[in-house]
Amino acid sequence: MARSPSEPTSAGGPGKPLLAVLRGERRDPPPLWLMRQAGRYLAEYRALRQAKGSFLNLVYDSDSAANVTLQPLDRFPLDAAILFSDILIVPFAIGQNLTFVTGEGPRLTPPLISADIDSLKPVPGRLDPIYQTVRKVKASLSETVTLIGFAGAPWTVATYMVAGQGSRDQSDPRRLAYADRGRFGALIERIEEVTFDYLCGQVEAGAEALQLFDSWAGSLAPRQFEDWVIAPTARLVARLKDRYPDVPVIGFPKGAGGKIRAYAAETAVDAVGIDETVDPQWANAELPDDLPVQGNLDPLALLAGGETLVRDVRAILDAFAGRPHIFNLGHGILQDTPVEHVEQLVELVKGGE
Ligand code: CP3
Fold first, then answer.
1. 36 CA to middle of ligand 1, Å?
2. DSSP state string for 292-311
3. In a 3-state reduction of DSSP, which class is residue 244?
4. Packing angle between helix 43-52 and helix 62-75, nearest 10 degrees?
5. Does the beta carbon of 255 lie inside 6 Å of ligand 1?
6. pTM
7. Helices marked H in 14-111 — which ranges?
8. Residues 27, 49, 190, 323: which is the catalytic one?
9. Residue-by-residue pLDDT tens, the chain, 353 positions
């Protein structure tokens, strides 16, 4: 396999490989975790989820949520645990009602396309049980595993708050952002405030790195991308760095494509996550040499398994061999993914360890 001539560092022993890479070290093999690694592809998740009756019951029972967070670690030698919660806990704390309709996804009421944000009554206590989960996970984590806290980035959270649900092209929030910049900007700022508090709470409870999921970053025109993806993320990162200079932030602007370099440069995130539509060779050439990159196996390649998986994993390892790299999917793991394929992936990435 093509590795760059200078050897990757392993200063300080194994430690926490993910944190080492987020600080700019190269590791061979790279640390590995999977977006949505706790979830429905695991039978033990489905069992607990069913016992609790609903997704929110599971999230709000911190013993169960901690248990679910750790389930994938019991099966696979992953380098991170990601807090089991959801990006929509922030709108819930801002005062929208949140439900998950089986087979249809989340619903937030009232949708802000037809209601004013000032009509919502904030319920900040809805964040507290999540911090309990972080504390419980941290207490039982092995010393090589990094605990990742997360939130949705303001734009993506705003898309759900405005539409009241997921939408194919985010047209309601995009229209609102053009039609009433003042109102949309105020919404973004409110989300920023609560998200900052929420991430600080997670760090205080023991999160060692943070990821900002901007799942719908790909739907914006360039100037809108500057205003609603880059600018709010940059402000959040600056405030987090001011308070916690040693806690790395991973930005994941899904679908950003050619805007990824501007995103990385202007937000000052410590690492950038790239989705499966990006050619890893292109991303490697496009991004600064010392910037840690996370990604970007197609979740469908993992689902397919076999030769496709072997080929795609190698291509990603080769493309990023010369830089700090965190192996991950390009988006969340799909629920039909066979567990054996995840085992195969771990073997392919970590096999030589
Ligand atoms: O990665 C992890 O293992 C940690 C947990 C996590 C969840 N959601 C649990 C979850 C994380 C990091 C998220 C992030 C999230 N949630 C995002 C950003 C990442 C992405 O996928 O784009 C978004 C957009 C959401 C909003 C959300 N939550 C939707 C659209 C849905 C319904 C879709 C679905 O898969 O059913 C959820 C529910 C949800 N969040 C589930 C899980 C495990 C499934 C709920 C269930 O078990 O019924």
1. 7
2. -EEEEE-HHHHHH-HHHHHH
3. coil
4. 170
5. no
6. 0.95
7. 17-22, 43-52, 55-60, 62-75, 89-94
8. 49
9. 343 444 565 544 569 999 999 999 999 999 999 999 999 999 999 999 999 999 999 999 999 999 999 999 999 999 999 999 999 999 999 999 999 988 889 999 999 999 999 999 999 999 999 999 999 999 999 999 999 999 999 999 999 999 999 998 999 999 999 999 999 999 999 999 999 999 999 999 999 999 999 999 999 999 999 999 999 999 999 999 999 999 999 999 999 999 999 999 999 999 999 999 999 999 999 999 999 999 999 999 999 999 999 999 999 999 999 999 999 999 999 999 999 999 999 999 998 55
What is the secondary structure of 20-32 as a DSSP string? HHHTT---SSPPB
Residue with the smallest CA separation from ligand 1 atom 2 is 36
Domains and CATH numbers, the chain: 17-350 (3.20.20.210)
